[in-house]
Specification:
Radius of gyration: 21 Å
Strand content: 15-25%
Number of strands: 12
Order of helices and strands: EHEHEHEEEHEEHHEHEHEHE
Number of helices: 9
Structural class: alpha/beta
């Protein structure tokens, strides 16, 4: 069910932060609190004790770890209360035991969670960036909105009122799943009174339809035509949807989608990248598009990334 009302405004009623008490989770926690406060949503603080981590040492170790987790999360709750971070917020703390993703999935379903916020470690392994197993499971399998907060993000959320909000970047390939994320991008930009930048990335060399080998002039002409066509489509998107509070910006680039999205996000110093994704049986395959692009963006972004499922 869409969280965007007929007026084009996001109606967000529940936000969950999945924490492992790490530094990455602490940064994500600040973002989750800011989102929940802005939308007056109920805030859920959840931790799952992984039973698989204690398989070899027996159930007593699992019980001890669960007790310790309750103490840690209660202590964190008390710190948030004393700091005023939870003032006026409806909230609930949750500790579960079992397989991390399965338990979190159950919580999302049972509590009707509409957004999950996760902190990512985004470390390198085998020459590639990796999110971390729990974050990756949530990113790939959660049906609700997912906001990933990586190590490159600022410590404080851009929407907590501490500074002016910078532009939001909506990257689209014009596919149906991608376009279903557009209302969320427009509503989010309007909520925080910031500019929305719409980006489309085209193949490096769009080849013209010609029987003979194209010349350099043919290639340039094809690129110019492709750019104009793409810009026109981007402009049409904003004219066919609820009005933006700030004048949008339209950008067309050529090359690798993930590289160009990350480069534009860095150049413009955006606060959020917004991507639309579809449910697919291939989501566990890193090479499958567009999940590969989204995965690379989430791992490499220096800002938060909001992924919207269809």
């Amino acid at each position: 069910m869409s969280l965007v009302a007929a007026t084009g405004d996001i109606q967000l009623k529940s936000v969950l932060i999945a924490t492992d008490f790490s530094e990455a989770s602490e940064k994500a926690l600040r973002h989750a609190l800011a989102v929940a406060r802005h939308y007056e949503a109920k805030f859920y603080l959840a931790h799952v004790v992984s039973s698989s981590s204690f398989t070899l040492v027996g159930p007593e170790a699992v019980a001890a770890a669960t007790d310790a987790a309750y103490r840690d999360i209660r202590q964190l709750e008390e710190q948030l209360v004393q700091s005023g971070a939870l003032a006026g917020l409806r909230h609930e703390i949750i500790v579960r035991q079992g397989k991390v993703w399965e338990e979190l999935e159950n919580v999302v379903s049972q509590k009707h969670i509409e957004m999950v916020v996760i902190g990512t470690h985004a470390r390198r392994g085998f020459g590639k960036l990796l999110l971390g197993s729990v974050a990756e499971h949530i990113f790939r399998h959660s049906d609700c909105l997912v906001l990933t907060v990586g190590p490159g993000c600022l410590q404080d959320s851009p929407i907590d009122g501490s500074r002016a909000v910078r532009p939001f970047l909506f990257a689209t390939d014009f596919s149906e799943p991608s376009l279903r994320a557009l209302p969320y991008a427009i509503s989010s930009a309007n909520h925080f009174q910031t500019k929305l930048v719409l980006l489309n990335v085209l193949p490096s060399v769009p080849m013209p339809e010609a029987p003979n080998r194209p010349t350099a002039g043919d290639v340039m002409q094809a690129r110019d035509q492709a750019r104009r066509s793409s810009l026109q489509r981007l402009q049409q998107l904003t004219s066919q949807n609820p009005k933006l509070a700030a004048q949008p910006e339209f950008i067309v680039e050529f090359g690798s989608p993930s590289e160009q999205i990350l480069q534009v996000a860095d150049t413009l110093k955006v606060d959020v990248v917004i991507l639309g994704l579809h449910r697919s049986r291939h989501i566990d395959t890193k090479s499958h598009m567009p999940w590969a692009t989204a995965y690379e963006v989430v791992c490499g972004a220096g800002c938060a990334v909001l992924t919207v499922r269809d």
